Structures are given as C-alpha cells and as structure tokens.
Amino acid sequence: MCAAPKQGQKLPAGVDVEKETVLTGQVLDGDGQPVGGAFVRLLDGTGEFTAEVVASGTGDFRFFAAPGMWTLRALSPRGNGDVTVHPDGTGVYDQDVTVAKAS
Known about the structure:
This protein is an all-beta fold. It contains no helices and eight strands. Strands 1, 4, 7 and 8 form a four-stranded mixed β-sheet that branches. The protein has a four-stranded antiparallel β-sheet with strand order 3-2-5-6, with no helix packed on it.
C-alpha cells in the first residue's frame, strides 16, 4: 500500500516548542488502524492520574506536560494499552499507543 507519511498533529497557534513539552500521538488498534473516541490518560511517574483527553475521530491526542517519566494509557471498546514516555526537555514527543483486548 502506498500512502503519505504520517504528518503529525498541527499544534495550536502560540505554542512555543522551545518552552513547552508536548506529548502527542495516535491511538491505534493491533492492525494499525486509528481508534477514535478512546480515553487517553496521562499518569505521572508514580502512576497517579494527571489528566485525560478523548482522542479525536482519527485517534489523535495531545498533552502539555513537563520533562520526566509519564505513562500514556488508552481505554477503548477495542481494548486498552499503555506506553511510557521519557521527555528529557522541551519539544514535541510523538508516541502512539496500541490497544488490544485482554486475552
């Protein structure tokens, strides 16, 4: 299959990636298809809930965070998934989350 490469999300006007840490990505199923409407949670390094967003229809999500260790947890009818990210400074950190049904 031939397709355009993933372009990433467009950040809102006024976001200065030299001063902010942005965690962005897409929720995907096991076949690599976007999962719209998934709840995406941001958990801090101790596992404490920090924030939650609903993924767009194309599975996209975004959080503004601080450098450190974070867990992105996606919850959806198609399954759940976690991924840990370690932004070490300002900038955009792109990390997809794959969900799967528990077996």
